Amino acid sequence: MSTTKPKCFDANLIVIGAGSAGLISALIAATVRAKVTLIERSRMGGDCLNTGCVPSKTLIRSAKIAHYLADAQRYGLRDVSGSVDFPAVMQRVRDAIATIAPNDSIERYTSLGVDCVTGSARIVDPWTVDVDGKRITARNIVIASGAVPFIPPIPGVGDIAALTSDDVWSLESLPKRLVVMGAGPIGCELAQSFQRLGSSVTLIDMADRVLPKEDADVSALVADVLRGEGIDVLTSHKAVRFEGGVQKRLIADNDGLSVEIPFDEVIVAVGRRAHTESLGLAELGIALNRDGTVVVDEYLRTSVPSILACGDVAGPYQFTHMASHQAWYAAVNALFGRFRKFKVNYAVVPWATYTDPEVARVGLSEDEAKARDIDVEVTRHELAHVDRAIADGETRGFIKVLTRRGSDRVLGATIVAPAAGELIAEYVLAMTHGLGLKKLMGTIHVYPTSAELNKFAANGWRRKHAPRGLLRIAEYYHGLWR
Predict the structure, then answer these.
(1) 0.85 cut: is pTM over it?
(2) Which of 74, 321, 323, 369 is the most exposed place for a label (fewest CB within 10 A)?
(3) Taking the chain, what is the end-to-end CA distance rounded to the nearest angstrom?
(4) 395 and 459, same domain (yes or no)
(5) Are residues 30 and 134 in the same domain?
(6) For 18-70, how does the pLDDT look when each residue is reduced to its tens digit (9 = 90+)?
C-alpha cells in the first residue's frame, strides 16, 4: 500500500455506494461545489429503493387491501369479492420502484454535478480507489457500501434455495406454504403480508418473543395479531437443519423437542451484515466491529483519517433515515473537517416496524429504563379510547410515554397503532427541541384524528400532576359563589 499522499487529486471526495447514505453524501458535496465521484457496482438507490423500503411497503399496502376485502363484512359490506393476483401484486412492486428510480438515477445525479461511475471499488491507499482497473484519487473517501442479508450456516440451507429480503421480489407465484425465519421487523412484516395475500405462513425465531427489541407488551400484542390472522408463530424454536427433496422441511428444536415444519419456500430474515468484502479494508488496517460494521469515531472517521464511513456499513442503526442523517456528518467532516468537525447526534433516533398495527418508537423503552435503572414515569393511553380509531374500526394499540420522574420532559415514546410511523413524529419533534408534555397538551389537534392519541397521553400525564392544593382552593372559591 502506498502511503505517499498525492500532490493533487482527481476529486475532493469519493463516495463508495449509491444507497441512501452514499447518495446524500454525494449530493451534499456537489451542493457545496466540491468535485465528487460516486461509485456504484450495481443499482442506484441501493437496498432501500430496490429491495428494502420501497418494495416492502408496496407489498404491505397490497396485502392490507386484501385483508380489508376479506374482512369487509366487519365494515357492514356484503357480497364483496376479491382474489389476489400475485403476479400483478409483484408488478405493482416493480412499478413503484420504477416510478421512484429516476430520483436516484445516474442521469439526475450527473445533472446535479456528481461524477457517477459504475463498477466495483477497492480502496488501495488512503486517497486512491481502484474501479475495475481504473484508479481515482481524492482527498477524502466515504464508504457507504450498505449491508447484505445474513444467512446463518444452518446445515442444508444451501440446498433449499432460501430467499432473503433482497431476492424475495423475484417470486413469480405465491408460495402455498412459507417459512419466515426471524421475527424481527423484516420477518414480521413479510410474514403478515404473505399470510394476508394467501400463503400459509410459519414465523420462527429462537428468541422467546417476536420483536425482541421492543417492550414485552408490544411484542405480545403483535404476536396476538399475527396468530389471530392465522400465522403459526413459533418462538423459542432454534433451526437445526433443512431437508430438501420433494418434501422440503425445516427441523427445529423447541426445548429439546424436535419440530418438523414443511414448506415450499423459506425466507431468511435474521439480520443484515455490513458489506465490506472486496473493499480492501484489511490491507489498510481499517478495523471492523464484532458485528461486521466498520469501526468509526464520533466524527465517522475510520482508523485511516482520510476515510470515513456512514450508513448500514457503519451502524449502529440500520435505518434509511439514519443513513441519511449520518451522510451529512460524513460529507461535512470530510470536506470541512480541517476547520471544524461535527459529532454525530444520536440523541433522538426514531424507527418503525410496518406490521398492522405499526410499531414506532423514539428514545427509551420501558424495558430499557428498567434495565438501566432510570427512574421514569410511564403514561399510557389505549387506542380503543380514541374516537377516530373507533370510527375506523382499528382499535388495537396504545401509546406509552416515558418522562423523567416529576418532570414533563419526554425520554421516550412507543406507539402501537395503524399509523404509528406517522404519529411518532410529534414526539420526535418534542424530544429534539425540548418540548415537554405541557406543550403537547396545549397544542390543538384536529378532531377526529388518530393524532389525538398523542395529546391524550399528554393529558394523562397532566392529570397525574394536577396541582391538588390549587384545586382545593378553587373548589372552596366556587363554593362561596354558589
Answers:
(1) yes
(2) 74
(3) 90
(4) yes
(5) yes
(6) 999 999 999 999 999 999 999 999 999 999 999 999 999 999 999 999 999 99
